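Field log, afternoon session.

UNIT: design team B
ACTIVITY: writing a sequence onto a fixed backbone
BACKBONE:
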């Protein structure tokens, strides 16, 4: 019986030892699988408590970090899935119709200029002594709304025998014409009374327009490569001139014809008639009756000598004044 009890006690002890061994082994395996929170060896209950708290803090930090990382990954994934909008591109696309419209507007031809005349005073005459001492090669349109341009003003020709400049001869006759017209009761507006000016052909026309001149007389001398060519020519706008009203075209032709006839009658010079043109800036910008008279060819030795002669210049001025008077009355 005692032997039997001894055997039972031994068996129970063996089972207990085996169970303790198994428990210890399992505990070691569990500890080896858990992440190390600290490199410090835990030796008592207080230390175990601190280690447990550190583990909790580490775990909490890990969870927060994982949550933030997860949140960023999710947000990034959502952004990729959302349709992308390119605002600058949208603005550019929105501006394309406007830009196209602007291009279209730029390409649209300018509207035709208003062809109108200004009220005129038959007691006012504007005289333009053509050219000036120094030319101005800067460009200006040949008429309102014109795309074609010309030099604002040139120096003109030079006498083949006298070597006098056309601008000087024109001014000398213009001053004589001014005196004669004033003596007949006309108000005379001069575009220039000096060689040293800088007045474009358009600006000269503007002077006549602002004066409401009944007649705008432009004095010039002609020139040719052929020295035998001579005579007086009048330049007037042609019918259908795109810059002038029909009434100005018609009245300008009448004025030019009257001036040329008067000059040739007074001097005996050859009458070459009218040349109708639409490319003269000083004509196309006018809104009053205008006449450009080529008083003779200074490339011709005889006419050059005449046009630089004081007595002949007096005849020229009187003849022009007669033509103006016949037109205005």
């Amino acid at each position: 019986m005692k032997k039997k009890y001894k055997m039972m006690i031994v068996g129970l002890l063996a089972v207990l030892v085996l169970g303790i061994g198994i428990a210890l082994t399992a505990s070691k395996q569990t500890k080896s699988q858990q992440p190390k929170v600290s490199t410090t060896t835990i030796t008592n209950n207080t230390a175990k408590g601190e280690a447990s708290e550190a583990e909790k803090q580490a775990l909490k930090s890990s969870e927060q970090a994982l949550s933030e990382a997860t949140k960023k990954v999710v947000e990034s994934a959502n952004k990729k899935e959302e349709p992308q909008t390119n605002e600058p591109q949208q603005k550019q696309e929105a501006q394309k119709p406007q830009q196209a419209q602007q291009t279209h507007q730029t390409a649209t031809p300018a509207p035709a200029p208003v062809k109108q005349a200004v009220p005129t005073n038959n007691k006012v005459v504007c005289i333009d002594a053509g050219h000036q001492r120094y030319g101005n090669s800067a460009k200006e349109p040949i008429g309102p709304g014109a795309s074609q341009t010309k030099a604002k003003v040139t120096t003109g020709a030079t006498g083949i025998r006298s070597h006098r400049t056309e601008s000087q001869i024109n001014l000398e006759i213009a001053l004589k014409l001014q005196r004669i017209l004033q003596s007949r009761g006309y108000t005379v507006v001069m575009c220039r009374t000096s060689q040293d000016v800088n007045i474009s052909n358009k600006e000269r026309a503007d002077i006549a327009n602002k004066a409401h001149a009944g007649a705008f007389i432009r004095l010039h001398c002609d020139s040719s490569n052929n020295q035998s060519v001579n005579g007086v020519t009048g330049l007037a706008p042609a019918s259908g001139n795109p810059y002038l009203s029909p009434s100005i075209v018609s009245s300008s032709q009448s004025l030019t014809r009257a001036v040329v006839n008067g000059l040739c009658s007074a001097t005996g010079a050859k009458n070459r008639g009218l040349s109708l043109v639409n490319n003269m800036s000083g004509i196309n910008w006018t809104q009053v009756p205008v006449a450009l008279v080529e008083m003779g060819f200074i490339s011709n030795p005889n006419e050059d000598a005449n046009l630089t002669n004081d007595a002949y210049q007096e005849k020229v001025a009187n003849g022009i004044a007669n033509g103006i008077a016949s037109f205005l009355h």
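LOG NOTE: The beta strands are 121-129, 136-141, 149-153, 187-190, 213-222, 232-237, 271-277, 290-297.
NEXT ACTIVITY: expression trials, pending approval
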